[in-house]
Please model this.
Amino acid sequence: MSERAQLRAMVTGYRLSAALDVAADLGISDELVDGPRTAADLARCVGADPDTLHRLLHALGTVGVYEERPDGSFANTELGEGLRSDVPDSIRPLARTLNSPALWAAWGHLGHSVRTGENAFQAKHGVDAWTRRRNHPEENAIFNQNMTVQTTAIATAVAEAYDFADMSTVVDVGGGQGSLLEAVLTRHPQLTGTVFDQEHVVATEPSSPALAPRWASASGSFFDDVPQADALVLKSVLHDWPDDRCVDILRVCAHNLRPGGAVLVVERLLGRAGFEVEAAFSDLNMLVMPGGRERSEQEYAVLFDAAGLRLTGVVDTASQMSIVEARAATG
Ligand SMILES: C[S@@+](CC[C@H](N)C(=O)[O-])C[C@H]1O[C@@H](n2cnc3c(N)ncnc32)[C@H](O)[C@@H]1O
Model:
């Protein structure tokens, strides 16, 4: 492909993203589980206009998401299978989250952020992303579902990469539905753990009943307090916040670390070879949506210093996430 053609594909990429969102939202790939169907048949089931749905599926067929067959029916391809709700690592919640009207509108304000340095979501909607989700339970549910799918995909890699051997308690701070905590407790049977998050978000029971005896749930704000533990895990939390708010969260964590314990920041690191594209575009997403940023190892070290902690190690996992370890600056 020529450079011009590549650039054109980049510039028009939003069309594909929007088309995938609609297919995901309508549940087309789920409807195709038992075999090929016509657009008219699908339209009746999912509540769509037959001609328009045909145009959407034809467009997605040209890029290999569905197979358009000679008899006019459509079938899932390997790509289309990934939009099913019931497959491991399903991309459906991501497609629905990334194209929610609130997010779409905020990304349309990226230029505002770049010109002013301000958070696009707040400028567009008049509230921050967390307040918006609290007031829109459906958006909150889709966001949480997507976080669970994304985190489940990397949780085992994180749980396997870190040596929790001399620890007995762990708190998944801002842990949402607790998928990382579940992987950590499964891999390290000596641990008991707590998932901590906002009241309208936090899981109240583990998805695996076998973990229930070692699993607890607590709610509140990590700007005020968090449960005490040997390991306080912050996954995809600090990247949501600007530096001064990160220092506030880390101070609360430092205060609640048991002697000898560690704060474990699980994030994509800017500058990690092989992962820069994901990290750099996630950085823009943080700018536009929650008003945070992705950071390098050195930038986390500066935040730790300001919060009474010191960086004591970085463990790259088999996933795109790294674990940045911090311990009390003194002692
Ligand atoms: C990007 S999500 C990460 C969730 C989870 N750690 C994961 O990686 O799947 C950020 C989490 O921070 C939580 N959060 C935001 N503000 C919070 C606050 N003030 N106190 C506690 N949790 C908060 C959100 O509810 C959300 O679950």
User: Anything to note?
Assistant: The longest strand covers residues 257-267.
